[in-house]
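Journal club prep — side note

Before the paper discussion, L.F. wants everyone to see what a predicted structure for a comparable chain looks like in token form. Sequence:
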Amino acid sequence: MSARYNKNYLSFVIARVDFSSPLKTDELPANLRKTILEEFPIPEPKTIMEQEVIIKPQEKVELKGNVAGTEWNFHGKMREKRLVMSPTFLSITYEKSYGSFEALQSEFLSIVEKLFEVYENIDVVRLGLRYINEISLPEKNPLSWEEYLNPNLLTMFDIPEKKEDILRGFSELIFKVEDMNLIFKYGIHNPDFPAPIRRKTFILDFDAQNASLQEYTDIKYNLVKAHTEIGNLFEKCIKDRFRVIMNE
């Protein structure tokens, strides 16, 4: 992700901040709404409902629904990206439309900066940046990745006596990088499970999370740091043969 390639295999890229207490979002502040609409011009509000379970005498159970607020979904012109503004978090998602980190950084930070301007008592307690790579290659052997990926990612596939008996293989590694947790999930998910693996697809899912009280300047720094660490880990996962494919 830190290197420049002609194409990528990103299915989702998500940037998100979480708030310590719910914000009032039934009517978004005008300045915030204007900033969002510049890049996400299609607004779609929806009501958030919370359900309460009330247990009464004689084992009577009553479900009570209450309106918890408004969640705003804003889409790009071609619905290629989505911004969600809810009482508890703000997120931007690019679905197979990610262009560059610089574009994400500009869009995300301009809106986060406006959040701090219009909500005086806002506390951001978590920043997340996630890149999900879905590497699909038009080759016959769906379990043969030695040419393209770090062999350390493939050791789990050596456990069964017959590789063709594998129906799914997925691992998770979580480790700290200073104040940030990096959650790395990888493997063959097999969308046809429990049928045999037919498609040559490998997932590299990187999720960097900083769970601490952060001001706007902290978010700016931590977003770049998260992207850098994810990029470094991605480069450790791939081989030059795969770099050639991404530069075709």
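L.F.'s comment for the group: The first strand starts at residue 10 and ends at 19. Keep this in mind when we get to the figures.
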